[in-house]
Amino acid sequence: MSKVSVLVVDDASFIRDLVKKCLRNYFPGIRIEDAVNGKKAQSLLAREAFDLVLCDWEMPEMSGLELLTWCREQDNLKTMPFVMVTSRGDKENVVQAIQAGVSGYVSKPFTNEQLLTKVKQALNKVGKLDTLMNSAPTKMNSAFGNDSLNALTGGKAAAVAPAPAPAAAPSRGLLNSPPVKAPAASVGAAGGRGQGQLRLPNGIQQCVIKALSLKEALLVVKRTDSLPQVLDSAVLDLEQGDNAEVARLNGYLHAIVAHEQKPDSEWLQLTFRFVDQDAQKLDYISRLIARGTAQKHFVPGA
Q1: Are residues 135 and 263 in the same domain?
Q2: For the chain, what is the domain count?
Q3: CA–CA gap between residue 91 and residue 127 (Å, rounded)
Q4: Residue 76 domain flag
Q5: Structural domain boundaries enclosing 114
Q6: Does residue 49 contact residue 81 with C-beta atoms inside 8 Å?
Q7: Residue 157 domain-assigned (yes or no)
Q8: What is the pLDDT of residue 48?
Q9: How many whole angstroms separate alpha carbon 166 and alpha carbon 235?
Q10: Same structural domain, 286 and 173
């Protein structure tokens, strides 16, 4: 019985590793290759046969949409399942991907179950699902460990729901979102310079940006009943300037501490580490820093 082959394409190694581990844990017999951008993926697809492509949208050299368009122009790749895995959850982006011939769409951040559901749907359409399911564990939960894989699951193994992924919701933009009212100490003494929107596997939170560097952001969020977890995969939406330019920055929670020195602190301070290697996003962050968003006393990685 031949193995099912999947190609994972993302410029962030953190995301590629987590996707590969999720698939290998649930489908032990699967064969997985990966590529750092569309150009590398194009070379692999030109010389090897794959049953499924899981691809990011925003990547250097060749975007996911450009790779998808190229695939649909090749006779041998016209019907190959191609699932877009991206932080671009706005309606116009989904429509654009559908028009280009995408097979499925997964919004970042996502849970294991959401990713696996899309993978099973895509493979089922081409008659490859049974091959994988014969080697899958009897219970989905047995495939999930307690290590860094929780960055995709948020530490949960909830049943798959028909509702859309949470990351697809924030299409109205940050300027129209309700402002987060951080305590005066965080904006005054700490010098918060802007606001953003943090999309986590368990929901969306408004945040105050205390400091920003090319590698990470220091955020303040209001504490809720559902606490974020270290290594949670997330997307930070930043909107700045009169033209309402939005950057969707992929990353994970590197550290979480109480903002106030008391156990019932109402506010949490998060260190959000970026994983994107996209030059346009790095340029955007650089421009934000130049506008005075970053704090002079903030030391990345401290």
Answers
A1: no
A2: 2
A3: 30
A4: yes
A5: 5-147
A6: no
A7: no
A8: 94
A9: 11
A10: yes
**Given the structure tokens 């962050």, which residue do they identify?**
285
CATH number of the domain that 42 lies in? 3.40.50.2300
CA angle 60-288-293, nearest 5°? 145
pLDDT digits (tens, 9 = 90+) for 36-75: 999 999 999 999 999 999 999 988 889 999 999 999 999 9
Of 95, 114, 147, which residue sits at a domain end? 147
Put simply, whether the predicted model's pTM sits higher than 0.70 gets the answer no
Torsion of CA 257, 10, 107, 45, to 10 degrees: -160
Burial class, 29, CB count within 10 angstroms (exposed 0-12 / middle 13-18 / buried 19+): middle
Q: Identify whether residues 19 and 130 lie together within a single domain.
A: yes
Task: Tell me which residue has tokens 């030109």.
Answer: 46
